[in-house]
Write a structure and sequence with these properties.
The chain is of the alpha/beta class. Helix content is 39%, strand content 17%. The chain has 2 domains: 189 residues, NAD(P)-binding Rossmann-like Domain (Rossmann fold), CATH 3.40.50; 107 residues, UDP-galactose 4-epimerase, domain 1, CATH 3.90.25. The strands form 3 sheets. Strands 3-2-1-4-5-6-10 form a 7-stranded parallel beta sheet, sandwiched between helices. It has a 3-stranded mixed beta sheet with strand order 7-9-11. Helix 1 packs across helix 7 and helix 6 packs parallel to helix 9. It starts with a strand and ends with a helix.
Length: 321
């Protein structure tokens, strides 16, 4: 099955936008789900074609048949949305006889919290997986189980970096605010002292998604028994990263690590404190892909870019010479 048409669910998101532009720059016709007129306009400004749907229904997927779309990439990241998408795609494949390839963007947190090295061959232990993303264990199993009906690839990025990465706010948001206010009071962060995990630039994630679609038959073939790919550039100690970042931002106070909060206290930070030490060897073996943007080597630039995205005064006050 060959087609240069793709549908992205989540095309205006942090990874989705980069992936959409990567396809468009290679002359793909790129469709994106638009839940509002504002999102539709955002897509059109980037030469991306909106498929409007203002409800939670998946009926918009019926348009795939008429439009000749055979590849769906799902960035939606909610417990129920992907199951609903899969239900609809099964219907389209079996009733409309319209072949579909599916790419699901998961994340390395599905491995669960451990400092032991893991890779895609290690089956996730659900009891170690943070409650916020625990649903991904069963969801990934369902996706792999549907391979004879809907050939699929699962991509698991590490912690996302680049430009205005929203996740970086958990590490540096309080620190940047203190620097801008001239506050040197001790900052308490809800992080474990041994938190270690993999980082990846969103441009590199966009590239592996593009390579997965371009080489879909190879990646989802029976010869490749594991169509799951962990994607990281560097595994780092987050406490060390925070201390380095605080110094680069110009923070003069102390930082106290308060440990992992409970799910009830903060669901996101509870999941964020998941240690995962993994690698991208499988992606390299199958696609020849390697990350092009090392996070540690580019850390100062990435941090300054993020900081200016949060507040432009940071440039005039702390970067401009």
């Amino acid at each position: 099955m060959s087609s240069n048409k793709v549908l992205l669910i989540g095309a205006t998101g942090f990874i989705g936008r980069q992936a959409a532009l990567r396809f468009r720059r290679n002359n793909y016709t790129v469709y994106g789900l638009a839940r509002s007129d504002e999102k539709a306009v955002t897509l059109l400004k980037e030469e991306l074609i909106p498929i409007a749907s203002n409800t939670g229904s998946t009926e918009y997927l019926d348009q795939m048949v008429e439009l000749g779309i055979h590849t769906v990439i799902d960035f939606s990241g909610t417990p129920t949305s992907t199951h609903s998408i899969l239900d609809k795609l099964e219907e389209i494949v079996t009733e409309e006889k319209h072949a579909v390839n599916f790419v699901y963007i998961s994340g390395i947190w599905v491995h669960g919290d451990s400092l032991d090295a893991v890779d895609e061959t290690v089956k996730p232990v659900e009891s170690k997986v943070a409650q916020l993303v625990k649903y991904r264990v069963g969801l990934e199993e369902r996706i792999v189980g549907l391979k004879d009906v809907i050939p699929s690839i699962i991509i698991r990025p590490g912690i996302l970096c680049g430009t205005n990465s929203p996740i970086w706010g958990a590490l540096f948001g309080q620190i940047l605010a203190a620097v801008l206010q001239g506050d040197t009071s001790t900052i308490s962060l809800a992080l474990k002292e041994n938190l270690t995990s993999g980082l990846i630039h969103n441009e590199d994630v966009a590239e592996i998604i593009f390579q997965a679609v371009e080489n879909f038959d190879v990646a989802s073939s029976k010869d490749n028994k594991l169509p799951i790919f962990d994607i990281v550039a560097d595994n780092v100690s987050f406490p060390e990263l925070v201390k380095k970042g605080a110094k680069l931002l110009g923070f003069k106070g102390e930082i106290s690590l308060e440990g992992k909060p409970s799910f009830e206290e903060n669901a996101f930070l509870n999941a964020f404190n998941t240690s995962v030490v993994t690698n991208s060897k499988h992606a390299t073996e199958v696609f020849g892909w390697k990350p092009k943007i090392p996070i540690v080597d580019n850390f100062e630039l990435l941090l300054n870019t993020w900081a200016v995205n949060q507040n432009q005064d940071y440039y005039t006050r702390f970067i401009k010479k």
